Amino acid sequence: MAEHKAEGDGGGNMEDLPAGQLPAEMESWSTEHVRKWTLELKNIGEECANIMYQQKINGESLLLLDKSDLMGTGIPLGPAKLIIHKRDELVKLKAEMLNYPGVQAGGPCKPYPFNRFHEAYRYRINSCLDIPESGALDLIEPCHEFKAYINTVDATKEAKMKKFTDDVMCFATACMNSRTNGTIHFGVGDLPDFSHGQILGFSVEDKESFGKALHDMIEGHFEHKHVAAAKKCIKPPRFVEVLQSDMTSSENYVMEVDIEPTFSVCEENFFHVYNMDSRKSKRSKSKESREDAKEFKSFYIRDNSSSRDLLRQNTQSKPLEEYTKYNENISKLSQERKEAEEKRLSIARNSVQGSKLCEMITGGSHSLDTSHFERYILVTNKSHPVQLDSLSFLLDMNLTAVLDFDPESSEKGLKKFFEDRNTNVHSPVQYKITEAVEDIASKLKLTRITSWIFCNGDISGEEPSDINSWSTEKGASVRDVVSFLCRGEVLPPKRFLVIFLLLSDVIDSKDPLLEIFNTFRQELRGPHQILCICENDRSFISWKELIEARYGDNISNRCISELSFAEINGTVLSLWSSNRRSSRFLPSGGGSKVMLTKKIEGCLDTLDILCVNQCEGGNDDKLSIQENFYKGGKVSWWNFYFSEEPGSTPFIKRDKFDYIIDTIIPDLCSLTRPCALFNIMHLPGCGGTTLAMHVLWTQKEKFRCVVLKDRAADPDDVAKQVVQLLTYEATEQSTGLPILLMVDDFEERDAVYCLQQSIERACPRKSTGGTNPQVIILCCMQTEFWGRHEATVDTVFIGNKLSEPEQKLFQNKLGEMKKTYKNVETFYGFMILKENFSPEYIKRVAKNTLKSFNINQKQAQLIAVMVLLNFYCKNPPLSVALCETFLGLPTKPKFGSCKVQDGFGKFSPLVTCCTVQAKVVFNAVRVIHPSMAKHCLEELTTTHSISKAEIANLLLTTDQFYDCLQGKEKLLQDVHAMLVKRYHSPEIEETQFSPLIHAIIKETPGFEETVLFNAAKRFEKDAIISQLLARYHYLKKRDFREAKDWARKAKDLDGDSSYIADTSAQVIKHELRNAIVTNQDDPIKPDQLGDYLKMACSAIDAFKETQVIAKKEVALRSQRKKDYTPYNISGRHGEIQVAVMVIEVLEKIPVFSLDKLRRSILSHILSGKIPIQAVASNDRMRHKNASYYHVLQNFEPFLQNIKDNMRVLCTLC
Predict the structure, then answer these.
(1) If you count Cβ atoms within 10 Å of the first and of the last residue's Cβ in the chain, which end, N or C, has fewer?
(2) CA-based Rg of the chain, rounded to a whole angstrom?
(3) Rounded Cα–Cα distance for residues 581 and 566 (Å)
(4) Closest CA to 179 of 326, 325, 12, 278
(5) Are 771 and 655 in contact (CB under 8 A)?
């Protein structure tokens, strides 16, 4: 009997020799090796093999033989020709292998899932299947056979198909007769020519031809009665793509055919095949041909790793004896197959991973609307087209970054799937820290648009790296990305989740994903913020074992592996509210609507777009959203939506609301300029922002309404996005609706005007036509000084007094709220307005809330710092992360019953949460109302004896406030502004210091110096703080030596600032003025005159330097956008002031103080018309005044230019 193993496919397993013992080089074969090789050849027979053995033919002599030599040994012509042909094929194959790309074997891999045809699975070239060639195992677990199938390059199509069908026929019949599942792999090498199971792949030009050839083989070679069964058992060819080592396509495939001989199909039948096409033999007219056809009937079974024909005679058994015995046993074998199938069906997995996924991806909230995680990072590898339809759950997740290791992602992977979403494509090198982290994050728009980071090519022509070289070529830059994303300034600590989405199996210990997993694991100090998603156990087990072997972590409890991607997709999508899943629509001309696509909305990243169906679908957190607003949180679109639900009272209309809707907006719409502007000016905390948003809400079907998210955004970028929204889905035939753009919290009017001009420049190029305004800007701006009450053409004012109709509306709303909430009295944001901003009410609340205040407690320290900041700064929040760290709180969900406010204890009613649109977007905490901050600060001073200086020193000296990186830059900006920013008002022409420093000077005189020195330590490298110390010492302390030291330090830190340079000049000027004022001598003595003129010269030189720097600033300013700083004229003013002081001093010395004539002479000297020597010569008292003339002559050039310089400077000023 004989085994069937195709020649040239990488050798085979022999009965007496273990696999792999046949030497790779034919020259080194022994006579036994040659005999074994000959026995494996098809249609040769044992007799011929024995003849070659007897003739002592070894490998070296085999290479020298020709056909005649073999025939001379007694071998018939037919076998002799076959032996020579097979030898030549093998020699050719070995020669081809020398040039075969990447012949070195790679790591292990799993076979494609059995009897599956649409799995997201590929092979990587040179990886090795981790299963052996085998016989029947448990009948269900498939046996395998490998065929290199690469020695067919020069073969005809018919020869290729014959080799394919012959190999499948033998293997399939053997599996069917053995009742075992099996897979035969083409394009997979074996020993001795390749590693066992090595993935090679081959080029496939016509996949359908293989399926047709397989169909014809079944029709022609099986007995007619078994053709139908064979078709059911032998599955169509499957073509598995082979990737290069760098994960790019190779254009080659491994072809596989699965055999599944189920009991219901095979029953107790046994299957024969004919080596010749039976259809052709039946058409043969000769009896001899028909008898020849019977001769080639075969009956194959799986025998270890080979297929053996029991009808093939050999010397080891009597003819047909084993065949007969096997057929007698077929009934028992069939029954075993049936039992194996039933056993497999009875195994049902009871999985709870759906619930586990909900828990892990939301952090326990089971809702993505209120997820514990504010942001997500996705790490993924090579995708397969069949997976993409099941990954739509990723589209709406708040992905901060995607680390994509698929080098073909843009062409046919996950990035292409995201093409209808707005993403920023980045290279890892862009995350190298070369400047402030928040500046880099701002430039990359990290927290505003999903950053797509290609980690292995597919950007800027960068070539991908293979698995062995990736770590050295790209690993460092990608590790920098991970470190950057995990920094506290970028993402909130413990509030983001890293999702490893394994779209391809990770099977090699050098796989980049393992390295990146470890980098995240190190940065996050463990895998607790990592979720791994695998589609099946095969992928999971490989991933788990590699991590455990390399890093010692068991990540089973951080993995989802028992759900298909379709199940994962459905589960995650179900975690969104219906509102988040619904489509969004914009108003369009003629009352129509257009759908706002996700990609367009993502592109307009500076704008918060209000759609006509905003909030439709509802929200399960209605009570908490409303409660947050009533307690002092910022109004949201939800609050307007809830007020329109049945049974609710309408949202409170302020008195100015109807005037804006009925008068201002129609008037603006009649203007002819492209962009119109009107203002809502309001005192802090008086509802100006709420009124503005209420206007937008009611106009959302008449205008395309938007809110500017970030006032620091480039005005040209904002203008482009506004015009893009204006022209979106607008045609020349339709009348486009104008944009109603709300901007809030701008500190300078010039910035609003600049934005208006940018929009007007963009509108003519993009406008859909018409003469009316295409954009109306609603500017909502705070004002500290209440001087105007009546509305104008383009401005309305909102004060801190409610009208009677407004008070009635608030009273009615209170009645409605009491029906829903039990603790309405703690809704201070609402109650302050309802009580008409009553100072007595706010004082009473502050006193009751702070009655247990103890400055030694953390909550007390934090609330003290917050009220100080909120009173002396504009909208100064503290990041949630900072508050949690300072209070020692565990990270908690941002919504729900457990909030960061709870950590403030009894002071929690005084604070609310908000979102800060800074360089990096983050969640924060602030005091509920500016007036509450004011009265809390007063209460701390009067009742608890906590001075403003004490709180300021606490803020400046406590490092814990600055240890938390998220929001640190904003906190430093606010503290800095609180210390240095001076405010001007009609009552006070110019203040010397910031309101805080003035308050400390008034409340606790002398303590301001300690505050300022602590500020200098906190802002050690800040020129403006050093400038502040200089100003304090020359204005308040009259310590000009110390003032000069601080002014010098400021200048060293920022020598290019005219304002810093001006401080050095001001110190000298004030020193001169102080010397003059404190001088009691009359007249001024000559030596004093010399000192004064020397100081004056120094001061004027310093002021001239200030003017030079100011001119340079003008030149630089013209090159920068959004710089509204006016020309610094302080140098000119200072020079004039010093000149005036010099004149005043000169008028007091005897030379010029006697009479009008002398003063006239002084005027001529200062104009350069009379030299001092001439005056001295004509002075009758020149001997008495000689010392004065001596001093004056030393400064004559300076004095003679004073008037001309003053004239020029006055003209410029």
Answers:
(1) C
(2) 44
(3) 17
(4) 326
(5) no
Amino acid at position 902, single letter: D
254 exposure class (CB count in 10 Å sphere: 0-12, 13-18, 19+):
buried
Residue at 683: amino acid letter? L
Return d(Cα 271, Cα 227) in angstroms, integer.
Answer: 10
Strands 911-917 and 921-927: antiparallel
* C-alpha to C-alpha distance for 931 and 685, rounded to whole angstroms: 8
- Environment class of 586 (CB within 10 Å of its CB; exposed 0-12, middle 13-18, buried 19+): buried
What are the tens digits of pLDDT across the range 971-981? 999 999 999 99
Q: How many CB atoms lie within 10 A of CB 760?
A: 17
Separation CA 240–CA 256 (nearest Å) = 8
| Strand-strand pairing, 198-199 and 188-189 | antiparallel
Provide CB contacts within 8 A for 820, sequence distance 6+: 623
CA gap 734, 605 in Å, rounded: 26
d(CA 96, CA 310): 35
What one-character DSSP code corresponds to residue 1007?
A: H
Nearest to 196 by CA among 134, 122, 287: 134
**What is the per-residue pLDDT for 14?**
35
* Contact (Cβ atoms closer than 8 angstroms) between residue 925 and residue 866: yes
Q: Is the separation of the CB atoms in 128 and 167 below 8 Å?
A: no
Q: Are 376 and 497 in contact (CB under 8 A)?
A: yes
- Residues paired with 239 in a beta bridge: 255
Contacts of 383 (CB under 8 A, 6+ apart): 120, 391, 406, 409, 413, 414, 417, 503, 504
CB 1171 within 8 A of CB 1196: yes
What is the pLDDT averaged over residues 658-665? 91
Residues in contact with 1064: Cβ distance below 8 Å, sequence separation at least 6, in sequence order: 1030, 1044, 1047, 1048, 1050, 1051, 1102
Bridge partners for 256 per DSSP: 185, 238
Q: Give the N- to C-terminal CA distance of the chain in Å, as an integer.
A: 114
Structure confidence by residue, pLDDT tens digits, 199-226: 999 989 889 999 999 999 999 899 899 9
Q: Residue written as tokens 């899932």?
A: 113
Query: Could you tell me how many residues make up the chain?
Result: 1213
**Three-state SS annotation for 1017-1045:** HHCCCCHHHHHHHHHHHHHHHCCHHHHHH
Fill in the DSSP letter of residue 556. G
Instruction: Check residue 317 and give left, alpha or beta (phi > 0: left; psi -120 to 50: alpha).
Output: beta
The letter for the amino acid at 167 is D
Instruction: Please tell me the distance from the alpha carbon of residue 1 to that of residue 312, in angstroms, as a whole number.
Output: 5
pLDDT at position 687 over 80: yes
Distances (CA, A) of 1030 to 990, 991, 1055: 18, 16, 15
Q: Dig out the tokens for 115 from the structure.
A: 């009897």
What token pair was written down for 126? 């040179």
CA distance 414 to 1203: 76
Cβ neighbours of residue 787 under 8 Å, at least 6 residues apart? 986
DSSP 662: I
DSSP 192-247: TTS-TTEE--EE-S-HHHHHHHHHHHHHHHB-GGGHHHHHHHBPPPEEEEEE-TTS
- DSSP 8-state code for residue 488: T
**In whole angstroms, how far apart are CA 59 and each of 16, 35, 561, 721?**
18, 10, 52, 78
User: How far from the centroid of its chain's Cα atoms is residue 1144's Cα?
Assistant: 66
Angle at CA of residue 1180, ends 1174 and 1184, nearest 5°: 100
Residue appearing with tokens 């499957």: 238
- Is 479's pLDDT higher than 70? yes
Q: Which residue from 306, 317, 214, 231 is spatially nearest to 271, judged by alpha carbons? A: 231
Alpha-carbon distance 719 to 255, whole Å?
56
pLDDT at 393 over 70: yes
| Burial group, residue 1169, by CB count within 10 angstroms (0-12, 13-18, 19+) | exposed
